[in-house]
Write a structure and sequence with these properties.
single chain, alpha/beta, 7-stranded parallel beta sheet, two-stranded antiparallel ribbon
Length: about 290
Amino acid sequence: RCWVAAVLVAACRAEATEPHCCWAGAGTTLFEGPEATGKSQADWRRGLLEWRERTIRESGITGAEPRPPWALSTYVQPQVHLWDRYLYNETSHEFTVGVFLQDLRDRYGGVDSVLLWATYPNLGIDARNQWDMWRALPGGLEAVKNLTSQFHEAGVRVLWGYNPFDQGLREEGEPHWTTLARLLKETGGDGFNGDTMYLVYKEFIDAGEAIGHPIVGEAEGGGYPSPYGRERDSTWAPADWNFLGWGYYHAGNSDGITNKFWREPGVDRAKWLDSRGRRQTHVCDRWA
C-alpha cells in the first residue's frame, strides 16, 4: 500500500505487479487518415468498416446499454476545483454557481457539464480518504447537494472526480463503486470521471443501478483498450457502457508541454465503433 501525496502525477501502485500508467495518444485513440496510410479513400474506408465489424464480433459488443441523452450532448466540460474563486466565495463562505457559470458564458458561451474535483491538493496529507474530502467541504454533503441542484437548474450536469489510487487511507468498509454510487445519489450527482483509469468497470455502473440511481462513468484513459493495464483493460467489450471518455489526441510533444498533432485529422476509434453515434469523447488538452 502507499500514501498519495498531492505532488504525485501518476497512479500510485499498491503492489509491484500492479499495472503502470501509460496514457494513450493519437496512436491508440485515432485511426490515421488515408493520406498518412498511403491508401485510396475507398480502401481506407473499407478497412475501417472491416475493423468495426471484426471488433464488434470478437468483443461481443451488443450496443444494448442505454445511453442517457444528456451524456451524448455534453460537448463542453471543464474540470473544476471546488476552491475556484468564481465557484466559492471565501468571504461569504458560499458556493456561487451563478457567478461561475456567467463567467464561462461571457468567455466562451457556457458549458454542458462540470467535472468537480475535491481531492487535490489535500488527498494523502492525513488518513482521510477521498470521500472525506467531499464531506469536509464547507457545508458538507448538504452543500454539495445544493451546489449540484443549482447546476441542474442551469441545465448543467455534474460529475465527480474519482481517484482509484486512494489506497491505504481510511476504509469505508465497502468497495469504491458502492460508496461512489451512494454519495452521488445522496447529492444528486450524475456520474464520475475515473482518474488514471483506462476504462470504467461495469461494477460502477451496476452499483448505481442497484440503488435506483443510474450514473455514467468517464475514464481518463477514454475507454480505449490498453496493453498496459489489467487483462480486463485490453478489450473493447466495455464500450457498451463506456460511452463517455477523455480523448488524448496528441502525437507527442515538442518541449514536455506543447502537444503536437497530426496534420491530417484522424478518426476516433471509440466513436467509429458505434455506428449510431452514441459515443461522446471529450478531447483533453491540459494546457489549453
